[in-house]
Every structure is written in C-alpha cells, then in structure tokens.
Amino acid sequence: MWKHEGGRVLKQGLCLVLFFSVLLSGCGERGRTIRQYRESGLEAMERGDYSAAAEAFHHAMDYYGTAKQEGTELDILRYLAEAEFRGGNYEQASDCYQELLERDGRRPEYLDLKSSCIVKAGGDLKEAGLLYQEATELLSSKKKGMPEYHLSALYTLGEALAKSRDPGLIEEAAAYYNEAQVSGGQSPELCARIGKLFFDSGDPERAETYFQEGLSLLEQQLPEVKEADRREEAMENRRELLFNVAVCAEYAGDYAGALKGFEDIAAEYGEDEALTHELIFLRSRVSTEGVE
C-alpha cells in the first residue's frame, strides 16, 4: 500500500518536474526571441531603417502576450514609439506614447512627444497645447528648466500655431515662447523662433527686435565655439539672422538699409539664388528712388 502510494507520489513529482522544465524552457526561448527582435530593431534604428525597426519591436511586443514584464516591455515600447516617430508614423507613435503615459506615469517627455505627434499628424492643436502645458508645469515643479525634448515640442507646436494665421493662436504661441524665456533663458534659436512668429503674423518691426537680439547673443557665443562642426552651424545660423534682419528692413520700407544688409552678407558668405534675387530687386529700387 505504501509502495503503491509512494510510486504515485513519485510519478506525480516527476510529472511536475517535467512540467516546470518545459515551462521554464518555453520562457527561456521566449526571452531569447524577444532579445533577438530587440537587437534587430536597434540595428535597424542605427542604419535609419525605421520601418524595419518598428516591425522588429512590434514582434518583440507580441511575444510578451499576456505575461507582462514591465521593465523590459516598457523599454521596447519606448523604442517602438521612437521608431514610429522617426519613420513619420505619427498616429502610431501617438498611440505608443499614450500607452506609456498610462503604464509608466505622466512623464514630461511622453507628454511632449505625444504633443508633437498630434501636431505632426495634423491633429487638434488645443489637445497638443494642453499636453505641452502639462509637461511645462511638471518640469517647473521639479526645477528641470528646458530640456531639449521640451524645446523641440515647443518649436513644433509654436510653428503650427503661427501657421494657423489665427490671432488668438499666435498669441498663444507667443505666450509659450515667453514662458520658455523665463524657464530656460534667452537663446539665439529662441529669439529666431519668436522673430519668425511675429514676422509671419505681419509685425516685421517686432520681429526685427528679436532677430537683432538673437544675432547679438550668437555673436557673444561665437568666440567660445571651438569645434569645427558647431562653429559652421553657428555661422550658418548667424547668416540666417542677418538675412532676416535685412528682410525686416525691406518690409519696413528701408530699402537702402536692407540693400546694405544683403550686400554685407554677400561679401562675407557669398551669394545664393535668394540673396541674388534680393540684391537685384533692391539695387533697382534704390537707384529708382535716387532718380526720383
């Protein structure tokens, strides 16, 4: 009797060992497959093939099934969102960031990236603005200043609001830019963005003030820029600001001042098609005014 019962217990124990061995083997195989898809996705991201990257990350997510592993799964979901965003699939990226907001908390970077997705997908600017504002409040409460991702979201939203031609939305964009000045300080790029906002809204005089301020800040920074790539970029930004200042002078009717500005740019940077066009027009205009 004892042997019989013991044999049954032994068989049951053996079955359980085999069951857990198979189960663990399956989990190990699934983990390896997930890692392989993750690595494939990262390699595709490195070479700029965002469609292949998104597909690989989708496969990795599918392998989790109902067995949620928050740490690694959220990591892959972040990569998936980035791949969809970089690939221009903004609605899909927005869905990913929404899931991250629900599962990983309302982090400023998720709010900003979802805001940018909505704008780039042609969605509701009001919703995008609310997400951006929430991110701003969170960063302010943590004294985080203006991280790069927040500035990027600001510029994306600001440009969309400016293009709307709606006076109320343009003022909203100006308010966001002013908040950024308070939080992160003035910068040449921020000045250029604000100047463009006012120029596009039909206020070249106010725009020129910001372009001039951006130019002054940039020229103060130039002596500190030593790396060749960064210096080349800074010099190109300087050219753009000089060009914008001259355009504002032209719109204000100061044709002689605008011509001098464009001629100075040509002497320092050389001519391109847009600059040549401006020079021809203004030389003709100034010579005509002289005759009159």
Automatic annotation (TrEMBL):
SUPFAM superfamilies the record matches: TPR-like (SSF48452)
Pfam families xrefs: TPR_19, TPR_6, TPR_8
Top-rank taxon: Bacteria
Name of the featured protein: Tetratricopeptide (TPR) repeat protein
Organism: Moryella indoligenes
